[in-house]
Each structure stands twice: as structure tokens, then as C-alpha cells.
User: Fold these one by one.
Assistant:
Number 1:
Amino acid sequence: MSLRTNLATRPFYNERAVQAGILGVALLVLAATIFNVWQLVSLTSRDRGLGAESAASATRAAALRQQTAKARSGLDGARLTAVAEAVREANAAIDGRTFSWTAVFNWLETRLPPDVRIASITPRVDADGRFILAFAVEGESVDAIDTFLSALESTGRFEGLLVRQERETDEGTIEATAEGYYRAAPPAASTEAAR
């Protein structure tokens, strides 16, 4: 058996096509390498910029924390309490000026039954700035006084009316002292009920 190979022959007949293919692949690798290097440089510079911004923000945040601490230490609790008390007193004075006796008497007159009379009314303002009206009333019976107080509460302008004390007089009538909160303007739902 003999071998019929010719070692003098060339394995590729078209070298130019192979070289062109290798050159194309090499150019693609070179282009990808250039693109990657450009991206690396771009992202590195961007990372440095963000690092600088982060450091500047941290410095600014520390400065703002110091300013906040300084501002908080400058607040005097006693002085703030005094200012708050002065504001509360001013609001009470303003509310006192806007208190309408005419409106109160009109509401009382419309709800006063014939067997009850009002002996005195004393207004005051509580710590929350709400008006409290204390009534000294005289009625023929406890039921008549209760009816009067219920009628006042139904207007929506009076709330929490309670009888603090009551006693029977020598004439057989009942004297009672009641007090409750008064609102200059009733809630919207109560306005319809009062009409």
C-alpha cells in the first residue's frame, strides 16, 4: 500500500478570503477594545465626579446638622413658654371682644320655657380658649330646668350643659346652677336641627 499524498501542495487554494476574514475579525476586536477603553475612561471620570458630589453633600449635611444643633441650643424653653402664654392671653382677649351678648340672649330667649327664669349668667374662658357659661336659673320643677338645658343643647351652640347644684327655695321653686360650653357658631349639622 502506498500513500498518495503530495506534500508539496498547498492546503488552501484561496488565501485571500481567509486573510480577509481574519483581518475583519481583528478589526472587530480592535473596534470593541477601543469602545471598551473609551467607556472605561468615561465611566471612571463620571465616577470621580459623583464621588466629589457625594463628598460635597456629606460636608453640607454636616454643616446643616451643626446649624440645627446651634439653633436648638439657642431656644430657651422658659421664654417659649412665656411667649405661648402671652399668645393664649391675647387670643382670649380677642375672643372676649368677639363674644356677643346679644347672640347669647337671643338664643336663651328663643329656648326659655315660661316656667323657668334666668337669674344670672357668668362667662369665662377655660385653658383651651373655650367659652364656659354658668347659669343660675330658677324653675317650677327639675323637669322644667332639664327641658330648658336640653333645648339649649339642641341648638348646637351649647355643649356639655350640666347642673352643678340645685336646691328648693322657700317658695317651692327649684334654684339650679348649670354650666356648659358655648360656641359662637354651631357645627353645620346642628345648624339644620336648630331651625
Number 2:
Amino acid sequence: MSKRVLILSGPTHEYFDPVRFIGNASSGKMGKALAEEALKRGMDVEFISGSVPDTNLPNVDAVSPPHPDRKENAVRTPRLHIQKIVSAEEMLAAAQEKFAAADVIIFAAAVADFQPLEKSAKKFPKTGSNITIELKPTPDIAATLCANKRKDQIAIGFALQTHDGEAKAREKLVAKNLDGIVLNTPATLGGSSGLFTWIDKLGLESWGSLNKSECAKRILTRVS
């Protein structure tokens, strides 16, 4: 039976009026690389993504390898379901529906940390004066879901840090009940590569500079 992997990818946008939002920077390229690598390994993929270009969504046509149980020129059709969301609350609701059925969960999304306390139905006019927008925390998606994680499920997170990276990543590993976490830096944002470090309860392994496809391979090897 194929393993089922749930991947959360891309940014969330928290709108404070109909056209303006608060959000974290994310291209979705890491999530795309993870999904495509999972498909290559024969996994079933549930992919929940914030707003990214379609080019940064998984490409099924690019990852259909020859099926080992069929003729040499036959291909296997990977099983992939993509669900697009906008906000952190929408991402959490979508993931809650898929979480119980997943064998592996990978939290690669850049979820905004705050959302407006109230959303205006009208666009704020630009008056030249300062405005004040009251914010509240968005739900902690990984912590919420993994609070009920079964022993047979594996959950992997990401920690993008500007300082004290290892210490902060280890705090998240414990607080969110993760099995592993990948530490990276803002230099990875929007790019095809970055500096990555794998951290789990047994220790740390510096992967150094990798393209995101190679990083995805190493992560999926850990959980396969």
C-alpha cells in the first residue's frame, strides 16, 4: 500500500481589507520539490498550498517514472490532489480534513504569524496619515495538528531563522511535537537552493548548501 503524505506549502495571506494583506514571503518551491519527490517514490500526495504561481505547484507530467510491474515503456500515473487556500485558518481547516489519513505530514508552508483582529469590508483610503491595525496570532497549524499525532505518523517541519537557529529549531521540534525539523535561513526565500540543517531528537546533521530538489530527496529518504 502506498504511503500517504500531506504537504503544506506556500504562504498564507491574511487580508485586512479587500485588497491588502499581511503575509510571509514564500515561493512554494520547497513544497513543489517535496511533492514531486514523493510522487517519484510512489506516494499518494495531498498538497495544500497558499497563493503561488501555477509554475510553483507540483508538475505531475514531470514525475511519472516507469512502473516496475509493467512493460518498460509504461508509466505510472501519480496520485496527487492539490487544494488551494488563502489564509492560515483555511489551511488549518483543510489540513484537519486530511491529517488522520496521512502517514507523513510535512509542514513546508510559510504561515503568517498574525492576522487582523477585524477585516474591513471596504478598502482603506490612502490619506497620507498613519493607520493602526490591531493584530491577533494566527493558529499554530503544526502544533494544533500534531497534538493528536499518532505514533505511526511522522511529522516534519521547517524553521526559517535569522539568529539562534539551532536553539529555536529545537524549541519548535518539541513544542510542535515534530519528529524532525529542517533549519534554513531567509536566503532560501524565492530561490532554488539554500543552506539546510536536519535536526531531530537524536542529533543534528548539517546538509550545507543544497538545491531544493536535493533537500526534498534527503527529507523523503528520512521518512520513507
Number 3:
Amino acid sequence: MSFTLNYKPDGDVLKQYMKSDAFFRGLRGPVGSGKSVASCIEILRRALQQEPNEQGIRKTRWAIIRNTNPQLKTTTIKTWLDWFPEDVFGKFNWSPPYIHHIKKGDIDCEVIFLALDRPEDVRKLLSLELTGVFINEAREVPKSIVDACTMRVGRFPSMKDGGPTWYGVIADTNAPDDDHWWPIMAGDVPIPEHFGREESLMMVKPEGWEFYTQPGGMVANKDKDNEIIGYRMNKKMENGSNLTPDYYRKIITGKSKNWIRVYVLNELGSLDDGKLVYPDFNEEIHVAKEPLLPAEGVPIIVGLDFGLTPAAAYCQLVRGRWLILRELVATDMGTVRFADVLRKDMAQNFPGAKFVVWGDPSGDYRAQTDETTPFQILRSAGIKARPAPTNDPSLRIGAVESVIARMVDSHGGILVDPRCTTIKRGFTGGYQYKRLNVSGSERYESTPNKNKYSHVHDALQYALCGGGESRKILVTDANETKSFNARQSIDVFSHRRKAPRSRFGFN
């Protein structure tokens, strides 16, 4: 059967990515930019470049990995078979692990497809002898898996058979979060302050690693205040010859600015599949354009969440408006160490300020393995903290919701410092109710999903509740109940109304 495979990378970044011989190559781009196709073609290109063995056969073995099995089957494998159809390149084995063994001419290329949500696939990955690995949509893959991949490549063909002509890891992705390993290692963002020394060293880009970033498919139009007022096609976009002229214009219809930022503009951002905890939060209204300065003479209210992922939110209540000045987010850190970090952080960033510290009420309970509570540990570190007035999730969330809905002197009731990236990302998508995997109408869990955004948002809730916002809700609810009860004294079936009780304010 006659078959001609014609491929030419449409874009300078795509060309640079494919020409590179780096041990690790990463390509970040918008949807439709041709990055996954380029990576698939790269596998065949390297198979063709492999030096033949004594029998004249060019042998290579690859693994292609994706975060979940459904994504692997419906997206990754589909793209692969679009370019390497079974009727030309041989039968695809649809029994896990999925394998496409291409034997064509002098090429013997084995491609194994693995999903990270299948434990047996992860175990297989860690035991394979490979030429290379392609990580599809790397923003969904932890750094530990990437490190494991680097240890499995360069091991096929064996050195007694001549060894691999080239070996390494290639990866593509849509724009990830700004605290993801990809932008940190690429040098797009600094290493977060809360990273420990060992974790920081793991984020330093090794020699032989290269990252490529494609232009966005569109560019945002902004007004004089730097607010987005629309979008236009990007003249520097890549893979345009393989897209319809109105591709990007159509896919942005009805999409949020966050979605467009990540998938079309190729800018760092957070997107999740759940339901926002605070749907009324508006980044243009509730996030400051520049860093906030604390108001002199006004106490700084600090909310704390404990555990091995402790967090702190620094706030001020200024003329009825909440200013979120700073966040402190830690990982894999016990209360003793966090108390010391918190004490130093308070002194360094707010010298001479008066602090009022509220923490998770459960932190006043002794652990079974230790007679010391987090509040006692904080006091030992010189931080006087007290339990927040409530730990009711609905009341805590309601306290923040009421502030978001509030207008103070024609401004939003809450204003977040732009440097509070975790709090901001949580508000705009990361802090959410997880979608339930059930048939029928969309359903979500009743409490927010525990993730990297939830801890600092819990801390923020404790701060606002300690600052009196939960008490305001209780008073409002009580007044509404009184009004409702008063209205119940009206007999809707009579022209006469029963006299309501005087304590409800009726005559």
C-alpha cells in the first residue's frame, strides 16, 4: 500500500523544538498549536535516525504517558492514530497496556501508551527499558513522574546492540499554574518563598533541559486601565495553516477569561472542572492593580490553618473594606517549624504592627501522639493566637461571600494584593466544589475540595470570621427569621390580619 507522510512544522518555535537534541525538551502552547502532533512526529523521526543494528534494523522503544486512561484513549491515542493509522503502520493492541508496534522497512519502533491513574501502568513505567518518553499534557503530571521517566530512557537498545543514537524525554502542555514545576524550571516565575531548600534545588533547571513557549493564538485588547475589552488574532500564531480562519474566534465564545488566558493566550493560569466556591468574585474588581500597603494604626488580622500544609492570611479591615495584604503557604511543614517561620514573617513584613491572630478551632485539641496543641506551640513561639469563633464551613464561606458582595464607597468589599497568588488562584478557579461522577444532572460535593488552594482559603475564612463577619451573618439570619415569623402571623385566607408580636417591630 502506497503511503506518504507529509509533515512540516508551521512555526519557528515548533521548528526549534524539533531540531533540538536536548535530553529534556518541553513545548508549551495554546490549544490547536500543533504541539502534540509535533511530538508524535518526533518519535518517528528519532526512530528513523536510530543507527541500525548488525541485522540492519533500527530498533527503538517509547512510552507515551497521560494523566488518566480516558484522556489517553480519547485524545492522545486518537492523535497518534490520525498520523499513524493501523492499515499502514500495523495493528494497534487495544488491550492494556496499549501498544503500537511499528515494523515498516528497517524500522522496529515499539510505542507503549500508559495512564497514570492505573497503578499497574505506573509500575510498568518504572520497570521499562526505553529509548524515550513523550509526556502528553505535562501540566497534569507531577515532577516525581518526570524524574522517573528520565531514569528509564537511554536503556534501549542495549549497549551490546549499539545503544540508542538519541535518547531523552519530550513533553508538551497547555499553560499550567504559575506554581507548577514547569514554569519554575523554565524560569518564567521565581521559586516560591515557601519552598524548602531541598524542594528549591529540585526546581533548578538541569543542564540539557530546554523549554519552548509558542505564541498565543490570540492577543488581548486592553483599555487605558489595562482591562481586557476583547481579543484579536495573533499574527505570530503557529500551526495556522492547519486551522480554520475563525477557529479561535469560535472557541472563545461563552468562555471565561481564565479559560481564554490558559487555552488561547497561552498564559499561566488555573482551571479546574468543579464549581467555584465564590462565583461572584471578580478579578477586575477584587484584585488590586498594584501591591497594597498596610494602613497605619489598624491591627493586622491573621488567619491560620494548621496541619502539614499550614497557611496564613494577613488581612486588615479598613472602613468596612477587607484588604488581603499577604499570604504564607507552606508544604510538608509541622506546626513547630511553621510557628517559627510565621513569627519571622510577621516581624519582617509588618514591623511594629499590632496583630490579632485567629486559627482553626480544631487546633485547640491535643493530638493523640502529642499533648501539645498548635495554639500552645504558637504561644511558645511568642504568637498569641485564639480559636476562630466558628468552624462551620457554611458559615465561614458565607462570611467571605458577604464581603465579596459588599460595596464600600463604590468599591468591592474585599481587595486582594496581586502578590497573593494562591488566594487569587483559589478565588478564580482553584478553590472549588469537586464534581461528583454521577449520571444525570451535574452534582458536586457539599464541602470544598481539599487541595493546594483550600488551606490558605480556610485561613482567610478564619481571619474574616475572627474579624466579626460570621457574627454579622448570624445577626442578619436572626433578623430575617424574625421577619419571616412575623409574616407567618398573616392569615392569607382572611381579609383580617392577626396582630403580630410587638417585639418584631410591628404595631
